[in-house]
Specification:
Blueprint: E1 2-7, H1 14-25, E2 30-36, E3 41-46, H2 52-61, E4 68-69
Antiparallel strand pairs: 1-3, 1-4, 2-3
Helix pairs in contact: 1-2
Length: 71
C-alpha cells in the first residue's frame, strides 16, 4: 500500500469531507480516504494501480480544483 497526501484549500465542512471521500473511495484500489478539515488535507491509502493523477481527478470531480500533492 502507498499513502499520499494532498492539500485542498477549499475544504471547509462535512459536506466537503463526504464529497471527496465518496469520489476518491470509488477508485478501484483505494483502501482508505481521510479528510482533515483543520489542516485542509486529504490522505489516501491505495494499491499500485491507483495513480496520483487519478486521485487528483477524483478530488476535482468532487468540486475542488485546487489540489496540491504533498508527497
Amino acid at each position: 500500500m502507498t499513502t499520499e497526501r494532498f492539500q485542498v484549500p477549499d475544504v471547509s465542512c462535512q459536506h466537503c469531507v463526504n464529497a471527496i471521500t465518496q469520489e476518491v473511495s470509488a477508485l478501484p484500489g483505494v483502501a482508505r480516504v481521510q479528510v482533515a478539515l483543520d489542516t485542509k488535507t486529504v490522505t489516501v491509502e491505495h494499491g499500485e494501480q491507483v495513480t496520483t493523477d487519478a486521485i487528483i481527478a477524483a478530488i476535482n470531480e468532487a468540486g475542488y480544483d485546487e489540489v496540491e500533492p504533498l508527497n
